[in-house]
Q: What sequence folds into this?
C-alpha cells in the first residue's frame, strides 16, 4: 500500500470520468479504472458527495468492511488523508469478535464458565487460527467450485491430528501430537472436541464442512469399537493419516433414521458376504475408499466395512449445498466382502449403528451452533451498518425483534449443548448410550430447527404477529 499523503482538497480535484478518487475512512482510493467494473455500477460513483469526496458513510451503508480487504480492491488504495486516522478498523482474522453475542459467553471478557479451563482457551485460540489460516482459503474455494478437499489440505489436517481429535477423547489419541502439542492426549476432552466442531463451522461453507472428512468422523467409531484387531490395525491408521477415505453408509431410499427398515442385503457365501443394495445421501461417498455399511442379514442387521472395488459404484447426488461434500448414491452389486470385515456381532447391527448416532448427532449440533453464531454476528453487524430510510436497520423494531429472537435461540442451543457435553465428559461410552441418547436426539432436533428459523430471520412464536 502506498504511504502517500493527500489533503481533502487534493482529492476533490479528481472527480470526473477517467480521473476519479474517493476517501473511505481516511484512506484514498483511485477508482478511475475500477468505476466501469464496479458491481454497483459506475453512475453511483460519480454522484455528488461521492466523486472526489469522503464517501465513508455511503460506502459502509452499502458494503461489508471485508470488501476493502479483498486484494483486487485493497490495491486501489493510493494513500491516506494527512492528519486523519482510520476509525473503522478491519476485523482481525482469528481474534474474538467484539460484536455483542458474536461469541459464546465463555470467550467474552467479564463472563464466567463452569466448563472451560485456561487450557481450553489456549486450544480455542490455536484452533481458530489454524482454521482461518490453513483451512478457510480452500473452504471458500471448494464451496464455490464444488471440488473435493485437496490431498494437500488433508495432509495438513493429519499433521495436527484433526480427524483423530474429532473422534473425541480416548486411547486413539495416545502418542499423538495434538494441534502442535497445545493439548496433551490424556487431557483432551469433549469440550476440546466441541471447540473444534464450532470453530470449523465459522466460514459459512456448509458443504465444505461436511467435506472436511466428516465421513471418517462418523464411519470410524464402529471400526474401532467393533472391528477385529487386524482390521483396526489396517484401516484406522490409513484413515487417520488421510491416506484413505471413509464414509458411513446407512441411509437408503427405503430407510433413514428408521434404521431397522434397511434393505441392503448381505448373504453369507463361505468366508464372504455378498452384498446387494443401494445407499443414499452418503456424505463423502464420492471419494470414499471404504464404506461402513448397515446391511440386512438372515440373523438381523449387521454392519460391514466394504472397501471400494468390484461391484461398488458411486454417483453424485445433487444437494441443497455444495458438491464439495461428495454426497453420493452408492450401489452395491453382488459385492464380495470378507467376513473378517464384520463390525460387531452378526444381527446386532442396530446397536452398533445407534450407539454411533449419539456422537454424530452431538457433533452436528456443535457445527450448527458454530454456524448460527456467525449468522447472529453477521446480522448484528450488518443491521447496525446498513442505512435505509435514513437510519440503520437496527432502528426498525421488527429488525430488533428478529435479532432478539436469533440471540435467544443461539444462547439456548449453546447452553444446552454445553450442559450435555459436561455430562459426556463424566460418563462412559455405554452410560452415554443409555442416558444421553434422548437428550442428544432432542437437542439435535431443537438446534436444527433453531438454525432454520435463524437463517430465515423468524420471530419467536407468534407473540409479535398477534399484537
Ligand atoms: C473502493 C471503493 C469501492 C469498492 C471496492 C466497491 C466494491 C463493491 C462490491 C464488491 C460490490 C458488490 C457487493 C458486495 O460484495 O458487497 C459493490 C456493490 C455496490 N456498491 Fe460499491 N464499491 C466501492 C465504492 C462504492 C461507493 C463509493 C458507492 C457509493 C454510492 C458504492 C455503491 C455501491 C452500490 C449501490 C452497490 C450495490 C449494492 C447492493 O446491490 O446492495 N460503491 N461495491
A:
Amino acid at each position: 500500500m502506498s504511504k502517500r499523503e493527500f489533503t481533502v482538497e487534493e482529492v476533490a480535484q479528481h472527480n470526473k470520468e477517467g480521473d476519479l478518487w474517493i476517501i473511505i475512512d481516511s484512506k484514498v482510493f483511485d477508482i478511475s479504472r475500477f468505476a466501469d467494473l464496479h458491481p454497483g455500477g459506475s453512475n453511483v460513483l460519480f454522484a455528488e458527495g461521492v466523486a472526489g469526496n469522503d464517501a465513508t458513510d455511503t460506502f459502509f451503508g452499502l458494503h461489508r468492511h471485508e470488501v476493502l480487504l479483498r486484494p483486487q480492491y485493497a490495491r486501489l488504495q493510493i494513500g491516506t488523508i494527512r492528519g486523519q486516522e482510520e476509525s473503522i478498523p478491519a476485523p482481525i482474522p482469528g481474534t474474538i469478535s467484539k460484536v455483542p453475542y458474536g461469541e459464546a459467553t465463555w470467550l467474552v471478557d467479564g463472563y464466567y464458565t463452569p466448563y472451560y479451563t485456561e487450557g481450553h482457551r489456549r486450544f480455542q485460540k490455536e484452533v481458530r487460527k489454524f482454521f482461518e489460516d490453513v483451512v478457510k482459503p480452500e473452504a471458500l474455494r471448494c464451496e464455490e467450485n464444488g471440488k473435493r478437499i485437496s490431498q494437500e489440505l488433508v495432509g495438513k489436517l493429519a499433521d495436527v491430528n484433526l480427524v483423530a481429535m474429532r473422534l473425541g477423547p480416548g486411547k486413539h489419541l495416545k502418542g499423538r501430537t495434538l494441534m502442535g502439542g497445545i493439548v496433551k492426549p490424556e487431557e483432551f476432552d469433549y469440550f476440546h472436541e466441541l471447540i473444534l466442531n464450532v470453530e470449523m463451522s465459522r466460514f459459512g461453507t456448509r458443504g465444505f464442512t461436511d467435506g472436511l472428512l466428516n465421513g471418517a468422523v462418523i464411519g470410524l467409531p464402529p471400526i474401532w469399537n467393533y472391528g477385529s484387531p487386524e482390521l483396526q490395525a489396517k484401516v484406522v491408521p490409513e484413515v487417520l493419516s488421510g491416506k484413505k477415505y471413509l464414509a458411513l453408509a446407512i441411509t437408503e431410499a427405503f430407510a433413514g433414521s428408521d434404521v431397522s427398515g434397511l434393505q441392503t442385503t448381505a448373504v453369507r457365501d463361505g468366508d464372504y458376504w455378498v452384498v446387494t443394495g443401494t445407499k443414499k445421501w452418503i456424505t463423502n461417498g464420492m471419494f470414499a475408499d471404504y464404506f461402513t455399511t448397515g446391511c440386512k442379514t438372515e440373523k438381523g442387521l449387521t454392519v460391514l466395512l466394504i472397501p471400494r472395488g468390484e461391484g461398488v459404484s458411486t454417483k453424485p447426488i445433487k444437494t441443497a449445498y455444495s458438491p464439495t461434500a461428495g454426497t453420493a448414491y452408492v450401489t452395491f452389486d453382488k459385492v464380495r466382502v470378507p467376513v473378517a470385515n464384520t463390525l460387531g456381532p452378526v444381527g446386532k447391527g442396530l446397536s452398533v449403528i445407534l450407539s454411533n448416532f449419539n456422537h454424530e448427532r452431538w457433533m452436528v449440533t456443535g457445527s450448527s451452533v458454530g454456524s448460527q453464531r456467525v449468522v447472529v454476528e453477521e446480522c448484528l453487524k450488518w443491521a447496525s451498518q446498513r442505512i435505509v430510510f435514513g437510519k440503520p436497520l437496527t432502528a426498525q423494531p421488527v429488525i430488533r425483534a428478529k435479532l432478539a429472537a436469533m440471540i435467544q435461540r443461539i444462547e439456548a442451543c449453546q447452553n444446552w449443548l454445553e450442559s450435555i457435553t459436561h455430562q459426556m465428559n463424566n460418563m462412559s461410552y455405554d452410560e452415554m448410550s443409555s442416558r444421553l441418547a434422548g437428550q442428544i436426539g432432542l437437542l439435535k432436533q431443537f438446534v436444527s430447527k433453531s438454525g432454520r428459523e435463524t437463517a430465515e430471520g423468524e420471530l419467536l412464536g407468534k407473540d409479535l404477529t398477534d399484537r
Notes: The first helix runs from residue 8 to 12.
